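Would you kindly consider the sequence and fold I have copied below?
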Amino acid sequence: MHLAAFVEGVNHTTVWRDPRAGDQMAFSSFRHAARTAERGLFDFFFLGQGLRMREQRGELFELDIAGRPDSFALLAALSEVTDRIGLAATVNTTFYEPAELARAFGTLDHLSGGRAAWNMVTSSDAFTGANFRRGGYLPYADRYVRAREVLSACRALWERAPASTAPAEYAGRYVDVRGRPAIPPSPQGQPILIQAGDSSGGRDFGVSVADVIFSRHSGLDEGIAFRRDIDARAVAAGRAPESVLVLPIARIVLGDTARDAAERAREIGFAQIGPERALAFAEQVWGRDLHGWDPDGPLPDIGPDVRDAPVMQGRVQSKADPRATVASWRALAERDGHTLRSLMVEIYAKPTFVGSPEEVATTMAERFRAGACDGYVLSTHLMPSGLDDVVADVVPLLQEAGLFRTGYEGGTLRDLLFPRVS
């Protein structure tokens, strides 16, 4: 089983108002989280990315974390206070250029001794693009066209040693590169590639280039179905299924008993989805200003306003039909007696594993053995200490079951993820 730690960027998961929460910009917070993950022998430490603070109704959405250090600078610093854990940066292929990406990841791989990884994401968001000179120029349908070209150009640069007489060359629709890399080949040659697109185009892109698919399908049945689809697409792309790892995101809530854990999960969920956040999520689907609506009352009795302009800017917009979404939410609320807020908690803040350490380890093992995944990327509501109890109480049980390493082997992150069989 593979395990990774995920520190998200702009999100609702992190309860920054919790008095135990650390400074979201302080290096000490990230150092604690990364060292905890390394103490747990995790494969890699994974940073999200926020390129612009989100806005709602034209104003700063102040419920988000206001702060995200630059991933390259932060991971380079973390390479000095960790020894073996991989260091993964989320970097957008839409707004960055191949030469700068090739150099930055090559540098990180050198500084860390071969531990760099790149989570490749895309965007067609003009709001975020306004922070860059080209603005939101990229059509939605072309986001993976540019991503593939950017990666191809980076690979051309990574593969071309500076001493070579011929420059690296790549020409595409969006990318045109001719030059030599500024640094020598790095320990891994290129970083581990991670990809999380869930559309059909995103899945095809992922299986064609990525080492790791970062998935949102963490349940048993949905995980098995997703894993089978990825395997089939990998074969169609000419790759062995075992060369593409599937790691879904997961959140763990522990307690001394199942009842204790369930109560703690409920408390965390309502801390993550406060009254303002519940209304914000509802507004994104209803397409209406619901300010003043009672979040602890029933769902709005009006239908959604279907329009192109999103209520919130800077957030990935759902492509689902708002009318169908509202209808399904109404049915769920009626069946389970939800208020608007409790429904948002159920939909947006439900943890993956809840129970005692023994119960959680058993369920993780069952899903892993059933073929639902190759492991998990663990997120937490509390930065920086949220994974402390998982490392202390769950990891040893997975080790006792023979499902997780008891020590690091191999020299690079690629060696950890794909160990050579002697």
About this structure: The chain has two domains: 2-252+353-417, 274-348.
